[in-house]
Amino acid sequence: MRAFQILIDGFAISALYALGATGFTLIFGVSGVLNLSHGAIMVAAAVAAWAAASIFNVGTYAGALIGVAVALIAAFATYFAVVKPIQDSRRIPNEEKEIFVLTGTLLWGIMIQELIAYFFTNNAKTVLPIVEGVVDILGVRTPKNEIFTAIVCCLVIALLWLLVNRTRTGKAVLAASMNPRGVTLLGLELTNIYIVVWAIYGILAGIAGVLLGMFLGVSSYSVGPLTASAFSIVVLGGLGSVSGSLIAAFVVGYLETLTAYLVSPAYRTIPALLLLVFVMYIRPQGLLGRR
Amino acid sequence: MASFFTSRLFFISLALVVIAATLPLYVSGYVLGLLTVAFYFGVFAMAWDLLFGFAGEVNFGPTFLIGVGAYTAGILNAQFGWSVYLCIVLGALASVIAGLVLALPALRVRGPYFGLTTLVAVLMLQNFIVVFADLTGGEIGLTIPDVITINAGANYWIALGFMTISAAILYGLSQSPIGLVLQASGQDPVQAGALGFNIVKHKLAAFIVSAFFSGLSGALLVFYFGTASVGTVVDVAVGVNVIVSAVLGGRRTVLGAALGAIFLIVAGEFLRPTGELATFIVSAVALLVVLFFPGGFLGAALSHEARS
Question: Which residues cross the membrane (chain B) (predicted)?
Fold first, then answer.
């Protein structure tokens, strides 16, 4: 009974982690950008969905769509206002661009976080779920919302896989991640590919954010921990490796759920952090990472 | 190094310190208190810049080192009643040991991996403080019974003196052969290694020096505040302030980092009437500096001097 509960809860949270980390790792894989405003964009999506449905009464579906749209806009703003100017800057030496992108997106994330806190307070917000009620699975009372979250996450990841591996645009993105210079030689504009990737990223982060808002609720305080957990999952899996981050998301998700149920919710994140240090020590490039 | 004592930077710094030293004679205790905190933050930022600016490693864990120093000193004083000065020394020592423990795995990896390892250290420390609440005061924080002094002027002078001495040592180090090797390894580790320099040894040294000053400053800050809490010395947000200070002031300048920290703290206070938007405005200004003056305050000023 309890084992089933851990299995089900762990699956839902892991799927959500996987979705949250996928966009993050995609951008890194393609353009080498670690976007530290990731948590802020996810929270912005959730808060927008919450505000649209709870304050402006547009309904849960429209609310969720507005949330995703806000994440898309935020992702584009991150790229055009912060990342691209740094990448194009001639005053920043090339070997330091990575550090400037980290600092820049970090500050950008704080700005988004503070705006959310200013307009919507620091209180936790729970987005109205699209499906309500509970079902009984193998003797475990499970909220339908939890099942919905898991299914949407898996579907979106599957769609992403199809997009990257089966469409022309996806193949261009894949090629850019392997050899950016080669892609430009083929006559493709690198900036256009980056725009596509940031668009995909915005949608992924938006869906993950809205689902998180329905499943666990968010506040402006979630920004830091969300970025940190996406970062750890992605590094654990191997930077830039989408399948690596999927595995890592499930390892971390289940480890946390197991700890929360079997030990104490207070210790929830500690084993995952220890594992991360351990992996860094024996395999610094992550589970499936290339060096 | 010798040329520094005849440079404009030296005279400007000297003049600033002399002017700063006279402040308690004519400004309010409130301003002194603000600057006292800013000076300790200045040391955090300079210590961070030694590691980041010169070795090119993004250390997301400045507050791990600061927090270990601060909490060690605080716990020894609050739970065991040891004397303030002994606690401060042991706090700095604990931070050096923690720095070594962190550096050993962290220095094997580079770039984002290094950043993550140091970030994890902060998250772990934060978790342990909450879990061992009996010892650490948990989320509420630890109340420290002793203080160095309650005189605002004396506290201010201690902080100013400490920052000045730290700045002199850290700046001296950054201009020494060790600093040059660090800088070379930051720009091209392979080539620097090929020249026969033991990069890991130099980075380890930088880490330990950075840890020592961070821990010492953290311990001193605890005895100024009379409390140690996650929100003031460990939280990732505090680390962000340290990082932003150093980048804002000008990375690789050490002294600029202190200017950046003082600017951040003072600007945050000036903007307090804007309420919750204060952090937003400070972050926006910092982002604009990062985008348009990547050299930071001191970097911009120095390049101007070099041109003219």
Answer: 30-51, 58-76, 82-106, 113-133, 153-173, 204-224, 230-248, 253-271, 277-302
